[in-house]
Specification:
Elements (H helix, E strand, L loop, with lengths): L20 H8 L3 E5 L2 E4 L1 H20 L3 E2 L5 E3 H7 L1 H4 L5 E4 L5 E4 L4 H11 L8 E10 L14 E11 L2 H21 L4 E5 L9 E8 L5 E6 L17 H12 L3 E3 L15 E16 L9 E3 L5 E3 L1 E8 H11 L1 E2 L2 E2 L10 E5 L5 H16 L4 E4 L5 H11 L3 E5 L1 H5 L2 E6 L5 E5 H11 L1
Parallel strand pairs: 3-7, 19-20, 19-21
Antiparallel strand pairs: 1-2, 4-6, 5-6, 7-8, 8-16, 9-10, 10-13, 11-12, 11-13, 13-16, 14-15, 17-18, 21-22, 22-23
Helix pairs in contact: 1-8, 2-6, 6-7, 9-12
Bound molecules: '5'-O-(N-(L-prolyl)-sulfamoyl)adenosine (P5A).
'5'-O-(N-(L-prolyl)-sulfamoyl)adenosine binds next to strand 8, strand 13, strand 16 and helix 8.
Length: 441
């Protein structure tokens, strides 16, 4: 992509409404734009990040055996009346009426809707287990939307729903999602602490939140620092191996972790040396709630003994728009964002310091073409701007690698590569640079 053909309206000053770094950086780098309280547009650069994150999340959900569907954002109230949640859900739910005066709502979550799909098609234990997921916008009319997309009213969630014959099967489905979550967070450079949690309005007796430690988080957590040295399950992990998957969950729930409002005795065993007390951002939440929805909604299957049973269910949420904020919050410096490679909007930023100069243009175009041909996404800054402003923009938007093409270097046939993370530059010939960058990707 060439900057002159792109839409990247970066802001010079930090917007007044932003209270935390990630919100300010996301606005300044033109990732998002607020349209109303807690409601955001995703501008081209932000859309690229969100798309990359969705792709990665899909890979991990599919690997764990979940199957993607897409449910509507607008749901009929009738389903929520069946489950009994229509009245109890409260003011967070955006309730609307259609032209026939039918009660509808903008989905804050989809347990009822997915239960309706499954009860319509799944008849037999032979069709189980089943785990259906979607990536879809949700609306919750939060009393105090805050920190940009971090606590928004409209937000993107990956929500998965599992259906099993019995509680042992449901536990295995839960464990698979747990392990898939560990892999997603690790792939975007985050350590997420699984914390046993209250299940709130979703319900059930087992629940874990995944929390990223951060000063701006809304939860207070205490955990063992061991979490920061633990190994992430590899991509080759066999998700059909129930024992292996359960052992990984055991390993990851063994070190101490709790939210501060719980008063566990185990805390006493945790020596001060290993204890981390910090704030954290909730980026995912797993629930296991058995027959809470299938029973009232008469969602049943025929078991091995020919009798009817309600499905044993769980649901598994991941806040994808919030995760983008959490990544920016945990990976930035004074100059701007530092994207992990996995979700960077472009892999490489090329700065042509002197557009119009024959040699600079030739080097910049050749570099851009060769990298694009090698499948590397580049943003070429071909604007006629001051060098300082171009450097500042590139640092602000935080692409992992910068290639700097300046009139003095090109006379010697050279190009500079700078790593955004450590700010270290190295000078190469054009060919050596292409080899180097393509080898790194
Ligand atoms: C699980 C999947 C559920 O809704 N039903 C479907 C279950 N869980 S949850 O914990 O309520 O939400 C899942 C994740 O969504 C993110 N999230 C938000 N992100 C941005 N703004 C919000 N207002 C918001 N509310 C929830 C969180 O990451 C949460 O873990």
């Amino acid at each position: 992509m060439r900057f002159l053909n792109y839409f990247l309206p970066v802001l010079k000053a930090s917007p007044k409404e932003a209270e935390i770094s990630s919100h300010s950086l996301m606005l300044r780098a033109a990732l998002i734009r607020q349209q109303s309280s807690g409601i955001y547009s995703w501008l081209p650069l932000g859309k690229r990040v969100l798309d990359k994150l969705c792709k990665l999340v899909r890979e991990e959900q599919n690997r764990a055996g979940a199957i993607e569907i897409l449910m509507p954002t607008i749901q009929p109230a009738s389903l929520w009346r069946e489950s009994g949640r229509y009245d109890s859900y409260g003011k967070e739910m955006l309730r609307i009426q259609d032209r026939q005066n039918r009660d509808m709502l903008y989905g804050p979550t989809n347990e009822e809707l997915v239960t309706d799909i499954v009860r319509s098609y799944v008849r037999s234990h032979k069709d189980l287990p089943l785990n259906l997921y979607q990536i879809q916008w949700k609306f919750r009319d939060e009393i105090r939307p805050r920190f940009g997309i971090m606590r928004a009213r409209e937000f993107l969630m990956k929500d998965a729903y599992s259906f099993d014959c019995d509680s042992a099967g449901a536990r295995a489905s839960y464990n698979r999602m747990f392990v898939a979550y560990l892999r997603v967070f690790a792939r975007i450079g985050l350590v997420a602490i699984p914390i046993s949690a209250d299940s709130g309005p979703i319900g059930g007796d087992m629940s874990h939140e995944f929390i990223i430690l951060s000063q701006v988080g809304e939860s207070s957590v205490v955990c063992d620092q061991k979490y920061f040295d633990m190994r992430i399950p590899s991509a080759e992990i066999d998700f059909s191996d129930k024992k292996k998957i359960a052992s990984i969950v055991c390993e990851w729930t063994d070190p101490y972790a709790a939210t501060e409002d719980m008063h566990p005795e185990a805390l006493a065993d945790l020596s001060a040396r290993n204890r981390i007390s910090a704030r954290g951002i909730e980026v995912g939440h797993l629930f296991s709630f058995g027959t809470k929805y299938s029973n009232p909604m008469c969602a049943r299957f025929i078991g091995i003994d020919g009798k009817n049973y309600p499905f044993f269910m769980g649901s598994y949420g991941m806040g994808l728009s919030r995760l983008v904020g959490a990544v920016v919050e945990s990976s930035h410096d004074k100059k701007g964002i530092i994207w992990p490679k996995a979700i960077a909007p472009f892999d490489v930023g090329i700065i042509n310091l002197k557009p119009g100069d024959v040699l600079c243009d030739r080097f910049a175009d050749s570099c851009y073409q060769q990298l694009e041909n090698a499948g590397i996404d580049c943003l070429l800054d071909d604007r006629n701007e001051q060098s300082g402003s171009k450097f500042a923009t590139m640092d602000l938007i935080g692409l992992p690698l910068q290639i700097i093409i300046g009139p003095r270097n090109v006379l010697k046939g050279e190009i500079e590569i700078k790593d955004r993370k450590n700010n270290q530059g190295e000078v190469f010939s054009l060919d050596a640079m292409i080899n180097r960058v393509t080898a790194k990707q």
